[in-house]
């Protein structure tokens, strides 16, 4: 689906990493993730960016496979 960016959009950012520097892995199970997504959408988010890799200084390396798996699990659960 194409997004019309001629009008500003709001992106919610959801970290699903267990060692996120922002929220410390607060959203690690489907129930807490869904609750946070619902809040962001109700507050006006047009879409959600899923953070599956921590960028905090000295964060443990996560393989591409693990990062993809985190995103795929999220997508599978919430898409149907």
Task: Please provide a written account of the structure.
It is built from two helices and two strands; from the N terminus they run E-H-E-H. It has 80 residues and is of the alpha+beta class. It has a two-stranded parallel sheet. The chain is globular. It starts with 10 loop residues before the first strand and ends with a helix.
Attribute tags:
alpha+beta; 2 strands; two-stranded parallel ribbon; 80 residues; single chain
Give the helix/strand layout.
Blueprint: E1 11-15, H1 30-42, E2 47-51, H2 64-78
Parallel strand pairs: 1-2
Oligomerization category of the chains in this entry: single chain
Rounded mean pLDDT score? 82
Q: Count up the helices.
A: 2
- SSE run: EHEH
The class by helix and strand makeup works out as: alpha+beta
Q: Estimate the helix proportion, in percent.
A: 25-40%
End-to-end CA span: 17 Å
Largest pleated sheet:
2 strands, parallel
Poorly predicted regions: none
Strand segment count: 2
Strand content: 5-15%
Radius of gyration: 13 Å
Shape: globular
């Amino acid at each position: 689906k194409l997004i019309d960016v001629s009008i500003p959009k709001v992106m919610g950012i959801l970290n699903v990493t267990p060692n996120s520097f922002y929220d410390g892995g607060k959203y690690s199970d489907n129930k807490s993730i869904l609750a946070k997504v619902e809040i962001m959408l109700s507050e006006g988010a047009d879409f959600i960016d899923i953070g599956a890799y921590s960028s905090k200084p000295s964060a443990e390396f996560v393989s591409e496979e693990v990062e993809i798996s985190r995103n795929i699990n999220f997508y599978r659960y919430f898409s149907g």
